[in-house]
Amino acid sequence: MLSRLKDMRIRRQLKEEITTDHKEWENIYLGSGGASGVLIGSVVNRDLEAMQGKRLSQIAEEQGKEPLDALFDLILADHGQTGAIYFMMSEDDMRAAMQCAIRRVSAPIVALALTMARWPASKSHPRGWGSYPRILGRYVREEHLLTLEQAIHKMTGMPAQARWPS
Q1: Is the same domain home to 6 and 54?
Q2: Can you give the pTM of this predicted structure?
Q3: 86, 120, 148: which is the final residue of a domain?
Q4: How confident is the model at residue 124 (pLDDT cuts 50, 70, 90)?
Q5: Could you give the number of structural domains in the chain?
Q6: Do 70 and 130 share a domain, yes or no?
Q7: Would residue 166 count as lying in a domain?
Q8: DSSP letter string over the chain?
Q9: Is 152 among the domain residues?
Q10: What integer pLDDT is reported at residue 123 of this predicted model?
Q11: Structural domain containing residue 21
């Protein structure tokens, strides 16, 4: 991947592919609204820590680059280890998921967040800390979309009964 990102011909092709909507694959860049919907969540290269918590659009503007060039350069500088957060879900989608009887709520990222908390320099996805409190606060207590018992079952019983691929 890194050697391909250094090739300007391949970069041009990637930019064209990423900025075009396709039926064959989910385009999370366009799905999140482009550069303003992509937040850099974590980097491994300590020299890049100032980028954490910034939107790709902000980074591109600060660097005077096109957003995808800024992204490709960041990925290269971070040796392909950059973590991003994509703002794609709508509240209507979340409400529908909460009310769906067969939809479980499972956040394996919680375990990762707890593990990463041991290292202060590392960053975890906000979902690792905020999914369950948001569901209980917003969708149970405030909006009454499901009962507390239903929410707890979606968070514990349903995931425990699920057959996960091995």
Answers
A1: yes
A2: 0.69
A3: 86
A4: low
A5: 2
A6: no
A7: no
A8: -HHHHH-HHHHHHHHHHHTS--SSS--HHHHTTSGGGEEEEE-SSGGGGGGTT-BHHHHHHHHTS-HHHHHHHHHHHTTT--EEEE----HHHHHHHHH-TT-----THHHHHHHHTTSTT----THHHHHHHHIIIIIIIIT-SS-HHHHHHHHTHHHHH-----
A9: yes
A10: 60
A11: 2-86
pLDDT score of 27: 93
- What are 96-109's pLDDT values in tens digits? 888 877 777 765 54
Residues 66-73: contacts with CB within 8 Å, 24+ apart?
66/15, 67/34, 67/35, 68/11, 68/14, 68/15, 68/18, 68/19, 68/35, 69/11, 69/15, 70/35, 71/35, 71/38, 72/5, 72/11, 72/14
